[in-house]
Amino acid sequence: MLRLEGGARTTADRLADQLGVSVRTVYRDVAALHAAGVPLYTESGPGGGIRLLDGWQSKLSGMTSLETSALMLLGIPGLADDLGLGEETAAAEAKLLGAMPLPLRAGAQMWRSRLHVDAPGWFDSPTRSTQLTTVARAVLDGERVRITYRKPAGTATRTLDPLGLVAKAGHWYLVAAHRGRILSYRVSRIQTATPIDGKALRPADFDLAAWWASSAAAFDRALLRYRCRVRLSPVALRSLPSVVGSEAARVTPGPADDRGWVELDLALESEDVALQQLTALGADVEVLAPDSLRAGLHDIATATAANNVGRGDDGGRSVRS
Fold this sequence. Notes:
Blueprint lengths: L11 H8 L3 H13 L4 E4 L5 E4 L12 H9 L5 H4 L3 H14 L2 H13 L17 H10 L1 E9 L2 E15 L2 E8 L2 E6 L3 E10 L8 H16 L2 E7 L1 H11 L17 E7 L2 H9 L5 E5 L1 H17 L2 E2 L5 E2 L3
Antiparallel strand pairs: 1-2, 3-4, 3-7, 4-5, 5-6, 8-9, 8-10, 11-12
């Protein structure tokens, strides 16, 4: 319908070529549209073809420029390519663009040419998995799948009920049920994946986005077992979420002193991790407890100062004035 709106006449052969179907399918769809009340008719002979009644428009043509641009964003390269759907996404986009009036088509193409999404974080590369396409097909078809999964202690075999896929910072995760538990598996660690007979069992009320958010928060909290008490300057307090993570920084500080410094209790992953994280705050942090963490931070500061003294003309070290 969108191809024919605006009075454009075309042939069944041309429609079949543009839409990637057979001529027989085109005629069957024309008959179905006509039976549904769409004022569509065909003319035989030279100059004939298929066309809609002049001035008739479907509800689909009422899309705004922002709505059509939003549809173009769904085809941003990367995710579709990872899932093995790059060609299909490009074909669907071409069909949609070809069906749009010229003003809407230009606006949609502008968004695609001016927006690029680079999902992985800085200094990180996306992981590729030879099994992602197979896993994605099992998820979309609702089929059970048997995988071999690489773990720190070796390789394990699991028969799973796939529930969804999550793309996080350049990595893909399979969310699946196994023996009554819902777990996530990094797809790059799946060595083999084989669909097996039987439909996957999917809880009726399962919400993939809500489960992932809850699972990620629970994982972060489970790591935060090391307790310490610190004093932070206003600068360090503002920087805390980017240094220790949003979950660890979700604490209530005590009252500020006359310089704006506050005391607060933190739960971090371990003493070694705490030393790395708190060192990033420099002179804007003071460790109050435990003593071992305070001593460790002091040692790092002392070694840093010793490594950054000035050099004299004779090549020896001298403290800068």
